[in-house]
Amino acid sequence: MSCSVEDLVSHITNYSSRKEYTLLNDFMNQHYQLLLKNQSLHDLILEALNVQRHSLGVLHIMAMKASCITSQSSLETVSQLMQQMTVFMSQCCQDQLNLARGCFANIFHHITHLLCERKIPIRGIKLMCLAIDTLQNGEPSSLTSVHADLCQLCLAAKCFKPALKYIDVEISKIDKECGMMTAFHLLSYYYYGGMVYTAMKRYDRALYFYEQAVTCPATMVSMIMTEAYKKYVLVSLILEGKLIPLPRYTSSVTTRWIKNYMTEYQELATEYGKGSATQLNALVSRHNITYTQDHNMGLVKQVAISLDKRNIQKLTKTFITLSLEDVVMRAHLNCNIEQLEKLLLKMIAEKEIFAGIDQQSKMVKFYDNPEQYNSCETLESIDKHVQNFMDIDNKIKEMNQAVMVNPLYLHKVKSSTSPHDEEFEAQLSQTASTSSSSAPRSSALLSKLNMFNK
């Protein structure tokens, strides 16, 4: 049935007034061609609608308007769209928004692409934070597809802290967004989140995020998983000094892919384990083109530096005093005395070692760790970790309870019970009742034996 723009506005207002939001959502999906043909009238239609009362209709129009903005569109058009979305999020009806969450998220995917293309990513960071808050609606542990957009913008703008508020939270729920949440968004979140943590040198969290991306169940390996594994190897060497094996539940397809196509990074891990900085640097020079094309050369250099640091740390467990020349020789360092002094001073400042350098005698003296773990900071850290474990335990109990009362789960358990299982349960209950009835006689017999022993 043909429909004019006036009819479209009339249907939006009528459906909204009767609160027939499902019918309105279907109507808007059926008439997207009308909006596509009348791009110049989008702003006029929006002016005729009220954001709070007609949130669902406004959202569909905004989605169509966003999809019509291309790389050739002016910056003012993009800015206007961002401003309109900011107003929409401050006034929209959450019940109506929930019917088109995927449509809502797609607007911000498109805005992210436009801002990165124009190399002004920092302008969208605050908007993405508002979008995540709107989608989460008071559930900070819920993962949305916009999380990946926020991390991408923060990386492009080199402004990492805004993302920490959202990626520091342990995820216990994934927002399906009406079926629009895909594996791409999940993998992108963990990959970009890992890169944010890597840039901030929080390698423990970065390693966890890369592991989640690599071990995601898959029937084929994606490019995101491939790039995540490369960084997983490098961060693992920096953090632990060795390549940590992937968990057993990693897909066999992923494991075979790594064995066959990640040879440069496997060799790097092998050479790192040998402890020779000279051999490691030779390997890096040999695969320099590969690491550069992968945009991992910066991390590879940090791996080489971490090997020097670990070799120095090993000396602190054996020697109390050493000359700087002996440190270079015993740690197999590829540097001169001045470079070694800078490295030692940096390690002392970062509390990676506890030592002092005598400039006159060119000697370094190693000390024990003065930390007694009795400070207020230590107690606060312990309390924070305990609280996190308690929160996780409570979430697991809630999820377990939700599964136990789920009708689908109960039906499956009931249907999977075979007649042999029922017969076994009957025999087990009969045995239990028999043993309980014979318990008094057994206790009487034991008492007689005890009296006889006495």
Q: Give the distance, in angstroms, between the N- and C-terminal Cα atoms.
A: 100 Å
**Number of helical segments?**
25
Element string (H = helix, E = strand):
HHHHHHHHHEHHEHHHHHHHHEHHEEHHHH
Output the radius of gyration. 31 Å
Q: In what range is the share of β-strand residues? A: under 5%
Given as residue ranges, the uncertain stretches (5+ residues, pLDDT < 50) are: 435-454
Structural class: mainly alpha
Strand order of the largest sheet: 3-5-4
Strand runs, count = 5
Helix content: 55-70%
Mean pLDDT across all amino acids: 89
Largest sheet: 3 strands, antiparallel
* Shape annotation: elongated
Explain what the structure shows.
Strands 3-5-4 form a three-stranded antiparallel β-sheet. Strands 1-2 form a two-stranded parallel ribbon. The model is unreliable at 435-454 (pLDDT under 50). The protein is mainly alpha-helical and 454 residues long. The radius of gyration is 31 Å and the shape is elongated. The chain has 25 helices and five strands. The protein starts with a helix and ends with a helix. Helix content is 70%, strand content 3%. It has helices at residues 5-17, 21-30, 32-37, 42-47, 55-68, 75-91, 94-97, 101-117, 125-136, 146-157, 161-167, 183-199, 203-214, 223-240, 252-261, 263-274, 277-286, 288-293, 297-316, 324-330, 337-349, 376-404, 407-416, 419-437, 439-453, and strands spanning 142-143, 173-174, 321-323, 355-358, 363-366.
